[in-house]
Amino acid sequence: MSRLRTSIHASLLLLPAVVLLAAFTHVPAVRTFIGALYTTPRGKRPAVFVGLDNYRQLLDDPVFWQAMANNVWYAALTIPLSVVLALVMALAVDARLPGRAALRMAYFTPTVLPMIAVANIWLFFYTPGYGLLDQVLGLFGLPETNWLGSRDSALYAVIAVAVWKEAGFFMIFYLAALQTIPHDLREAAAIEGASRFTFFRRVTLPLLMPTTLFVLVNAVIGAFRLVDHIVVMTRGGPDNATALLLYYIYEIGFRFWDSAYAATLTTVLLAILAVLAAVQFLFLERRIHYR
Question: Which CATH class is domain 54-287?
Answer without folding.
Answer: mainly alpha
